[in-house]
Amino acid sequence: MAFTRVNGIVLHHQVLGQADGPALVFVNSLGSDLRIWQDVVPAFADRYRIVLYDKRGHGLSDAPPAPYTIDDHTDDLLALLDQLKVDRAAVVGLSVGGMIGQRIAVRAPERVRALVLCCTAAKIGTSESWAERIAAVEDGGIEPIADAVLQRWFTPLFRETRPDEVVGWRNMLVRTPDHGYAGTCAAIRDADLRPDAGRIAAPTLCVAGDQDGSTPADVVKGTADLIPGARFALIDGAGHIPCVEKPAVLSRLIGQHLEEAGLV
Ligand SMILES: O=C(O)CC1=CCC(=O)O1
């Protein structure tokens, strides 16, 4: 666990694995923090230098006043990599984390060796849907929307058979600062990365969950189709957070992609 000041805010991050291995960065989703990667990291810790962090407004990182932009989040990641002296990294991003991954691949292509875009898209939702969500959170906090979010995060099977874990991940969600959450909703609302998707040069794998209620498989596939050479993979029995629900399957897909990209 470490804390670093970048762009005027403190970011919480962890560096694990092999100090001299290729860098592998994981970027979390809306309402989550770096703990969502805990069951994926062990598959890579023997070969990679792994960087986990809480993006602004989330986890133990600072939550400056809303709103944020995807470029704010991207600036934070670039500054964090500078601080850690990581010149180039493979980037795995979940949902809004995948939007940050797409943006860094366009803005700083020399720093991205490979990209895994998990349950994400170049455009997520509509301005109206995000405006509604921001208004709801500004009005009553995250608690009243939490159960609806959890329904998109996890499949019915996961929710029925692993209720204590659902409670734990729900606790993570509702403990996100309201303005950190709403600020990142605004970043997603305002981001349309489709015009630049064709400029992504990093080898890219797009992964979808077959029961994802937030970025359905056809939406993820639509983004894969915009990125030159991108591959698409579908995980059966997964919602929006396969790093929690299907970590072994996701780890295998990430590992194969990184090998094909020549990282190890
Ligand atoms: O809360 C959701 O609907 C899931 C989600 C959308 C963007 C993100 O990062 O998570």
TrEMBL record:
<dbReference type="InterPro" id="IPR026968">
    <property type="entry name" value="PcaD/CatD"/>
</dbReference>
<dbReference type="InterPro" id="IPR000073">
    <property type="entry name" value="AB_hydrolase_1"/>
</dbReference>
<dbReference type="InterPro" id="IPR050228">
    <property type="entry name" value="Carboxylesterase_BioH"/>
</dbReference>
<dbReference type="Pfam" id="PF00561">
    <property type="entry name" value="Abhydrolase_1"/>
</dbReference>
<protein>
    <submittedName>
        <fullName>3-oxoadipate enol-lactonase</fullName>
        <ecNumber>3.1.1.24</ecNumber>
    </submittedName>
</protein>
<dbReference type="GO" id="GO:0047570">
    <property type="term" value="F:3-oxoadipate enol-lactonase activity"/>
</dbReference>
<feature type="domain" description="AB hydrolase-1">
    <location>
        <begin position="22"/>
        <end position="130"/>
    </location>
</feature>
<dbReference type="InterPro" id="IPR029058">
    <property type="entry name" value="AB_hydrolase_fold"/>
</dbReference>
<keyword id="KW-0378">Hydrolase</keyword>
